[in-house]
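Running low. Any example?
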Amino acid sequence: MKSRRELKRLLLIPLLLTAATAAAAAQSTPAPANGSITGRVTLGGKPAPNVIMMLSRAPADAMKNISVMFEAKALIRTTTDGEGVYRFEHVASGRYSLSAYAPAYVAPPEPTATFLTGRVVNVTEDRAVEHEDFALTRGGVITGRITDVQGRAVVGQSVTLTPADEGKPPAPVNPLAASPFGNAMYRTDDRGVYRIYGLAAGRYLISFGGAGAGAFGALGKQSYHEQTYHPGVTDKTKATVIDLKEGAEVAGVDIRLGLASQTYKVSGRMIDAATGKPFTAAAVNYGAAANEDMKVLSPRALGTTPNARGEFQIDSIIPGKYHAFAWFDDDSEFYSDAAPFEITTADAADVTVKVHRGQTVSGTVVIEGVAEGEAQARFSQLQLQASNRGEEISAPRQMTAHVAPDGSFRIVGVQPGRLSFYINSFFEPTKLAILRTERGGMAQKEGVAIAAGESVNDIRVVMAVTSATLRGEIKTSGDGSLDDYDLTITAMRVGGEPPFSKHTEEVDAGGRFTIDELIPGDYEVTVTAKEGAAPTSKPATAKQRVTVMKDSETSVTLTIELPAKKGK
């Protein structure tokens, strides 16, 4: 189980998000709300009245998008009139997500890099954004029944909908049921029946069970089903593909499950590597290596606390290769090795998780271009985070550096390997960005290398205030239309170091873009145009150098030569 401290922190997330967004609002002057967005919604070419239109802020930062979803006033709603026309008035400058909420219908797919579904729209002061039209189509339905090996209904369980063609995802489904991982999860009723509606035309697979059904495997169950596809096969290549036409209903997409497979358990001890004595000041978790590059474990359980002898047991594990590791609070002085084990057809026993006392790393945070008094005020709100990974498979470890009024910080529990610093934008309202991390005056582009037993006290994390905004418009000098291309805009700070200096945004349907929270300075701005998701030719580009100023907005127009799309 998670420690009380961890559970308390999880319960406080909504409160912290509210405080963070309120603090952000208190620190900035509201922008003039003089813009507007208008458009028309149609269904089959005819006006679609009484459709709910939703408008919300769409920060570029994915974590800040999560924060926006908790903000009480983040979502603005209006309804289309008898002619299908909608209008949002008094809209402040900024980047927005615009969507039509019509669960039984489908809107054209909109490319988006955010957790918020919808069309990206950029609004500038005193400007009317017009013709943001939505042509809805009637959604399709897939329905069926899930039964066990004895023909009994499988009640209250999730089925998984996935695109049958890899690399060709369908249009987004009902946003209230969308999963952030690309699949949509739906539950069976008391008859074992599921019904998925509002689907775009396309080719789909329906499945049930498997580790992919949840991040935590079997979740306390003594048995589980392998991922089983319609009509009842575990081999994905033998699954029946559902070919769904626009507005059609495909019934009888049933799944008959086979015999449930048994889950197993892993047991062992957690010890202090230096003394060999039991260690009880952490939970034990398990997971598999995330990938070959990161070599970091992905947690698969909620964790369990060892007893006074350091003994632990984790139940309900499906077959596979894993590692057990200790799960610490952010400010713990310890880290652990990753202990490998494998589950095949029996429990795994005698797994030893070794815990080490970590090293201490200290240094200073400085904010360029900010007076001492202002810097101290920002330090009081700053949560500087650090992640640490070893050279081999290593347990996930996040640490919080508490920044003192003079900018000094100290982190404990650091393992040999590489240490990276970042600002947790989920909570951070201070509008700061990391320029670079230094050690001994030298920039550390790939993280700070920490050797075993080394004392590190000369870290310098250099930050700057992100007070500049770049707004712009894309035009074409060729025969092609912007509508025929997927446009992205990238601003790279001249002289900066990736990833801190690179900002990439989408361009909306009107050719407008907004990149906010930039560090003042010179940027090379590049627009890239791709003809569809899988272009056959090299993307067209155009570049321009732009200077953005502190506490101000800079406007720019980029012209790119686009040829007419083939076949037009």
